[in-house]
Amino acid sequence: MTLLEFARGPAIHWALIILVAGTIWRLLGVLALTRGADLSRPRDAFGNYKGYRTVFSRAWPSGEFNVATRYQTVVAYVFHFATLIVVVGITAHIEFIQSLTGTSWPALPNAAGVAVGIVALVSLFALIMRRVTKPSIYCSNRGDYITWVLVAAPLITGLMAFAHLGPRYETMLAIHILSVALLFIWFPFSKLMHSIWFVFSRAQSGLTYAHKGVQI
Amino acid sequence: MAHTSTLGELLRSQGVSRRDFLKFCTTTATVMALPASLIPVMADALEQARRQSVIWLSFQECTGCTEALTRSHAPTIEGLMFDFISLDYHHTLQAASGRAAEAAREEAMREHAGKYLLLVDGSIPTVKAYSTIAGISNLDMLKDSAANAAALIAVGTCAAYGGLPMAAPNPTSAVPVSDIIKDKPIINIPGCPPLPQAITGVIAHYLTLGTLPALDAMGRPLAFFGETIHDRCYRRPFYDRGLFAETFDDEGARKGWCLFKLGCKGPVAYNACAHVKWNQGVSFPIQSGHGCIGCSESGFWDSAGIYESIADGQFGTTPKIASAAVVGAVAGAGAAVLARGKKEKKAAAHAANE
């Protein structure tokens, strides 16, 4: 079996299995630990529903924190959107998703995909520079750095494969797919789960405060 | 056939002018990436070339490689060169049969010991009884013939990498030439069939310089297998702009858009079809509207469906991933039950302590 056959076959298959099983495991395992309903009367008649607004209102830090957080927030959003566009906009990725789910959608031209990929990579480097140079703000542990490497690797290897840099194309493609497989395996057991948690944690804070009468 | 003593005499007798001959030398040298200073050397060497003894062994093959090589509408200089070499043994082309044919082979091996080129097409079954010629198994015939050969050329994907006979479940235990012969230089010229120019180009190189051309890591001549189809495909601009044919004969297909989504293996197939093309430059599969099947790559029969895009996953997916979701749900529920149990126990202990 060549490296590419291994990467496209058992490697990505098992990585997807671990991703799905691990994510649902952690999701259910944590959601089952909710505190139970607050049985007191809410201070605001519609408070419990207005509390969900927090999921959206916390998408940007409050005005008083703007000066301190603007750079970080902007760069992080650029990174997230660029990575999302790369993942769902590049033809080969859409083909792969179609082979799994049957759905597909129009793709970006390759040049646009490459441009957005470079933006994602540059913003990712800006983020790690900030993390490393401001230890007073970021108490980083090993998991943070591993996460950064496993997120950067698919971007770098994907760009290299497309540009025919480095090893022969079929090898570079295999390395790209393997790096994605590693990311999938790491995902459910790391801080990357924030991509799913953030909805629940924002909602929980919002509901608690709304119940107590805070105007969300 | 050709009873003239040098290649130059043969070509003249066939009406090939000196000008055409030099044009051929220039083109061949260019395609083989030889420096321009070698063109007069090549012309001289080919002019004087005496008949090179070639033995062609056909094992588990379909004869497609011979067909590709010999079926040309107009005689080409490549074709004439192929006439010029002393093809001492070839099942399809030789006049003799039976014992006379085998005797011709044995005599050529004796008379030109150490100097003949051994061309092999077809894979070799390691279970000897599965393929025999004149009662001799392919395995034994290959080993015997290779012992005194100057070099071996594995023509076609079957000889180079095992090809169709070696595809799962490999009922004849077929192997490529390089699995059996370890002590002689072997060139692989894969393809199903290979480009005729690749075969004759290698022979021309050997006639001129007496050596085999530069090879890549899989033993293929770099001149013909150094680039992928994708890198030279005329439909590449459509790939870059993201214009793909979604099905055969849809609007995109009629406009000649990229066939990536229809399973074209161009990006991972190393061959020269996209620029050298077939039938003296008429066309090649992608130009005719069908994606490349990667026929010059090892294991291409088993590696993916012909109409499955390279980007697709290679696994019977949905059931297993769906069951992964179930496993995760069970594990999550189990973890939740355990955690709640622990929480209630701690709460009870805390209440008891107060």
Helix-strand blueprint:
The complex is a heterodimer of chains A (216) and B (354).
Chain A: H1 3-31, H2 47-50, H3 54-57, H4 66-89, H5 91-101, H6 110-133, H7 142-162, H8 169-186, H9 194-212
Helix pairs in contact in A: 1-8, 4-6, 6-7, 7-8
Chain B: H1 7-13, H2 18-31, H3 38-48, E1 53-58, H4 64-70, H5 77-84, E2 86-89, H6 98-111, E3 117-121, E4 124-125, E5 132-133, E6 136-137, H7 138-147, E7 151-155, H8 156-161, E8 174-175, E9 186-189, H9 196-209, H10 222-225, H11 229-232, H12 236-241, H13 251-254, H14 273-276, H15 300-303, H16 317-353
Helix pairs in contact in B: 2-3, 3-9, 4-9, 5-9
Kindly provide the radius of gyration of chain A, computed on alpha-carbon positions and rounded to a whole number of angstroms. 20 Å
Number of alpha- plus pi-helical segments of chain B: 16
What is the highest CATH level, the class of chain A? Mainly Alpha
Largest sheet of chain B: 5 strands, parallel
What form of chain A results from the Cα inertia axes?
Answer: globular
CATH topology of chain A: Fumarate Reductase Cytochrome B subunit
Mind telling me the CATH superfamily name of the largest domain in chain B? NADH:ubiquinone oxidoreductase-like, 20kDa subunit
The profile of the biggest β sheet of chain A is: none
Structural class of chain B: alpha/beta
Tell me the number of strands of chain A.
0
Low-confidence stretches of chain A: none
Distance between the termini of chain B: 111 Å
Going by CATH, the architecture of the largest domain in chain B would be: 3-Layer(aba) Sandwich
* Biggest interface between chains: A-B, 40 and 42 residues
Write the element-wise H/E pattern of chain A from the N-terminal end onward.
HHHHHHHHH
